[in-house]
């Protein structure tokens, strides 16, 4: 607005109120000198502009408070920031477990069937029921499975093994009622105690979530056994052999399951699974273990720095370390290489380290063996020419049963 007023005033300086009208600009330049226009005229323009501005504010309710451009920009920025800030909505309240289940059941069509022959009732889920997807998505994710301490077991035989070992059954899914005939008594007792939920689902849906080529048609979700549960159960059995097995770079879940099965059959005191191995609690490993996971102490996700802490403190000073090494190139520079049948001493406790077939034993394993000095040995299993090596589970079985003979011989001599 001030710019327009200045323009009008600049034009009005060259107008004369006479009858002949306005003179041309060229005539005015002749009358007024350039010095007058530049010095006196411009100052007069400013005074008139300020006077007009002051008069305008005096005739209105506004106050005459001139501000600079920087102050104006700052005020605009504050206004914009205040407009951009929105009130955040309060976070949604976490649903309880009962409320979550109620909402799932409300949005899904299901039918509760009371089977008198089996002795318990089950819920028949429809094809579009979302409860199956929700349950299986949770237990198939390692992060969620570890957080909830759950394991998935497939097949009637393995489910029965878990029930016999006292594991807590949370949910069981089946596609045909005949598949529950062999465990109906155990399932009925758990359902009466309100400890288990039973669902019948279409075989096609159960097949999608199965990890087996030929699904057995029955799947159960158990609570993972804790160390206290295993320790309490083992206290009622004869003492295990003073042997700790350390798994290093075991990537195949079937091999890891077979190793756990062998250690439980010996039985060894405990098994340590270092970081870098596969998950011992996934379905393939559990199936390969054939129930061995429930009969031995398992320490998983262990760093090599933590391995000495797992060894019993009372036998740590007289502990022997054996590495099962099939790679001859790694053991060429070592003087402590023995044939697995020539074990002469074992000490109060023995640690057997077994590596994977593809990656072998790590450098950290050799460093751990060097900490015990002369009590560390590399065990070699001879094989025929042209044969690369034995399966990792088979090699460990040979070494463990050779150690077992030596340990039992030493115990008999002490008696």
TrEMBL record:
GO cellular component assignments: cytoplasm
A biological process term (GO) from this entry: methylation
Signal peptide range in chain numbering: none
MF GO annotations: RNA binding; RNA methyltransferase activity
Keyword Manganese: no
Top-level taxon of origin: Eukaryota
All copies of domain RNA 2-O ribose methyltransferase substrate binding, residue ranges: 152-228
UniProt keyword list: Methyltransferase, Transferase
Region (Disordered): 81-107
Bias-annotated ranges (Basic and acidic residues): 84-107
Pfam families registered for this protein in UniProt: MRM3-like_sub_bind, SpoU_methylase
Transferase is among the record's keywords: yes
Family: Belongs to the class IV-like SAM-binding methyltransferase superfamily. RNA methyltransferase TrmH family.
Name by which UniProt lists this protein: RNA 2-O ribose methyltransferase substrate binding domain-containing protein
Protein's organism: Glossina austeni
Lineage, uppermost ranks: Eukaryota, Metazoa, Ecdysozoa, Arthropoda, Hexapoda
């Amino acid at each position: 607005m001030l710019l327009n007023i200045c323009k009008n005033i600049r034009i009005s300086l060259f107008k004369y109120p006479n009858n002949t009208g306005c003179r041309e600009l060229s005539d005015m330049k002749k009358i007024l000198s350039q010095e007058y226009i530049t010095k006196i005229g411009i100052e007069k323009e400013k005074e008139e502009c300020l006077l007009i501005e002051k008069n305008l504010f005096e005739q209105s309710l506004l106050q005459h408070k001139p501000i600079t451009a920087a102050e104006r920009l700052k005020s605009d920025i504050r206004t914009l920031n205040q407009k951009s800030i929105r009130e955040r909505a309060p976070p949604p309240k976490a649903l309880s477990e009962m409320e979550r289940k109620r909402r799932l059941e409300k949005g899904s069509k299901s039918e509760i069937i009371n089977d008198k022959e089996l002795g318990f009732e089950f819920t028949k889920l429809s094809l579009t029921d979302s409860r199956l997807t929700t349950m299986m998505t949770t237990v198939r994710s390692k992060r969620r499975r570890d957080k909830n301490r759950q394991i998935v077991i497939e097949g009637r035989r393995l489910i029965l093994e878990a029930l016999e070992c006292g594991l807590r059954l949370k949910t069981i899914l089946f596609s045909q009622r005949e598949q529950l005939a062999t465990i109906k008594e155990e399932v009925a007792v758990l359902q009466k105690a309100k400890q288990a939920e039973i669902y019948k689902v279409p075989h096609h849906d159960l097949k999608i979530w199965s990890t087996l080529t030929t699904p057995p048609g029955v799947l159960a979700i158990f609570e993972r056994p804790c160390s206290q549960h295993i320790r309490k159960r083992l206290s009622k059995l004869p003492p295990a052999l003073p042997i700790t097995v350390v798994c290093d770079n075991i990537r195949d879940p079937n091999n890891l399951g077979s190793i756990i099965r062998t250690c439980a059959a010996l039985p060894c005191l405990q098994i340590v699974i270092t970081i870098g191995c596969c998950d011992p609690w996934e379905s393939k490993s559990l199936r390969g273990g054939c129930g061995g996971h429930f009969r031995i102490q398992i320490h998983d996700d262990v760093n090599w720095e933590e391995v000495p802490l797992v060894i019993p403190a009372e036998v740590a000073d007289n502990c022997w370390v054996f590495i099962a090494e099939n790679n001859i190139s790694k053991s060429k520079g070592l003087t402590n290489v023995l044939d697995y049948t020539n074990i002469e001493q074992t000490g109060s406790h023995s640690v057997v380290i077994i590596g994977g077939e593809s990656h072998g034993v790590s450098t950290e394993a050799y460093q751990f063996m060097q900490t015990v000095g002369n009590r560390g040995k590399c065990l070699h299993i001879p094989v025929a020419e042209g044969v690369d090596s034995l399966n990792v589970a088979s090699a460990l079985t040979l070494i463990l049963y050779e150690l077992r003979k030596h340990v039992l011989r030493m115990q008999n001599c002490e008696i």
